Amino acid sequence: MIASRLISFFLFFVTFGIVTASPAPKAAIAKRAGTSSDLQAVFLTLKSATDSILPQINALVANGKASDATITPLANAVTAALDTASASFAAIPGPVSTESGPSKDEIAALAAGIITDITTTFDGVQTKSAFHVPTLGLLLLKIDFALKTLLVGVDFLVLGLTGVVAKLLVGVAGLVHSLGFVLFFTLLKL
Question: Does the predicted model carry a pTM greater than 0.85?
């Protein structure tokens, strides 16, 4: 008798507990979309890095002191800066909207300015100091691959950005081609 009352009492609370129980809330997964300001920040960091490296290369060429020993570490630093920027772009969740923040044209102009500076500097090395830097071809190949990787990564975030950059680089298309940046040249269809 007592057992039947205990069982019915137990079943009442189990039933009442099931009815009133609410499922545990899922942890809110906040997935923040990247912004065009994130892209601009990465490009500004890249510009800062190249603005400190490229004048050193230009000075070595102007002073006639360009050699494998002096140019190789600086060219590798440019490649490393490009690779770091590519990794930063890969970490930005995409696609990125350019409706707020910097526009696609502003970001493309920043990218084109950096690329123009790099190509102009290494054109100077190639025309004035190529005999003193026998590994220049290999260094340029690394930079070519890094530039292509950078722009492919950016184009995944902002569709069509590469086309805008290509239009801005028409003036240096000859330099890009003469440096042997085949991958980059092909990507931009210059």
Answer: no
How many structural domains are present in the chain? 1
Residue 51: give the domain boundaries.
36-188
Residue 98, classified by CB atoms within 10 Å of its CB into exposed (0-12), middle (13-18) or buried (19+), is buried
Return all residues near 114 (Cβ < 8 A) that are at least 6 apart.
43, 46, 47, 50
Torsion from C-alpha of 34, 35, 41, 44, nearest 10 degrees: 120
pLDDT digits (tens, 9 = 90+) for 113-137: 999 999 999 999 999 988 888 999 9
Question: Half-sphere exposure (CA, 13 Å, Cβ side) for 46?
Answer: 31
Residue 11 lies in a domain: no
